[in-house]
Amino acid sequence: MTAPTTVRTADYHTAGEPFRIVAEGLPPVPGDTVAERCATAIGPGGSGTAPRRGPLDEVRRLLVQEPRGHAGMYGGFVVPPDDDGAHFGVLFWHKDGYSTACGHGTMALGVWAVDSGRVAAPDDGDVQVRVDVPSGRVAATVHRAQGRTTGVTFRNVPARVGARKVPVATTLGVAEVDIAHAGACYASVSARDLGLEVTRAALPELVRAGREIRAALATHPATWHPDGPLLSGVYGVILHEELPDTPFGPHQRNVTVFADGQIDRSPCGSGTSARLALLAQDGRLGAGEDLLHESVTGTVFTGRIFADGVTEVTGTAYRTGEHVFTADPYDALGAGFLL
């Protein structure tokens, strides 16, 4: 194992989805921008879900794999920002590699920045934490009341629709898939069109459908991003279902299957941004209206979209612990394993 023998983390969850933060002790990650550092982490010839092995990736594997992590773990390496306009940068990671966007992670980072004193915050009021991520500059506005954090709002890069009603053959039938870019590329499909409901009991079938759709769209031109391959290709598949509208706008439940079959326990921050762009194009979400977006675990985000395609997603994030992980050089399991 070439990773440091000791790694300190601060762990959070955002609407049930974990986020493990590493702010010190990392090996050097060359690059002038966060996007360049992400490309360095992935390595020449690698991809977001198949990175090349290297010192930084050894740390990722140590923290995400069992027995220190699990297949649903998510996290981020805190790195320098692109310039003085942001407080810091981050490289997002999961069990399969790296991602260019992560709304729930940005929300957790905002709360962590306030908790740790990295960004000063009032006892009552809001403070904005600006973060450079591989897809651009995003922000987390941390809401405070009586000395404690009560919520956090993620402001994403502009979202845009890539394609509508793309037919995709799956083992459950042909799905009509909508494609939208919101820091990463998401494919959306109605779960009920595949004979499924968004429930915990249906998760095996939902994951299978998500993996099939992602694979089928691997070379579709609508998944290409003009800024290049780092932001191109389907990152997540959102299987959603309609619930009764609220007085403030639409209400949906979803499960987002991302990377190689990983399940988002939250409603998915950047995935919610993608849903907002599609709903706005359909005329279902106008000025002053909100999407109430539920996850398969029952947690909720509230999202809204503005005329320029910028979205905001509001939820909560809480600290779950601080950890010191150790890699014993005599441990035959090394960085661990995944089941």
Explain this structure to me?
The chain is α+β, with helices and mostly antiparallel strands and 339 residues long. It contains 5 helices and 18 strands. The chain has helices at residues 34-42, 55-64, 103-115, 203-216, 269-281; strands at 6-14, 17-22, 74-79, 88-94, 98-99, 125-133, 136-145, 148-155, 160-170, 173-181, 185-190, 234-246, 249-258, 262-263, 291-294, 300-305, 311-315, 317-326. The protein has an 18-stranded mixed beta sheet that branches. A hairpin with a 3-residue loop joins β4 and β5 (98-99). The longest helix is centred in the middle third of the chain and has 14 residues, at 203-216. The radius of gyration is 19 Å and the shape is globular. The mean pLDDT is 96.
N- and C-termini, Cα separation: 20 Å
Which consecutive residue ranges, at least 5 long each, have pLDDT under 50?
none
Helical residue percent band: 10-25%
Give the averaged pLDDT, no decimals: 96
Q: What portion of the residues fall into strands of 2 or more residues? A: 35-45%
Structural category: alpha+beta
Please report the total strand number as a whole number: 18
Oligomer: single chain
C-alpha geometry: globular
Gyration radius, in Å: 19 Å
Instruction: Characterize the biggest β-sheet.
Output: 18 strands, mixed
Which series of helices and strands comes N to C?
Answer: EEHHEEEHEEEEEEHEEEHEEEE
Count of helical stretches: 5
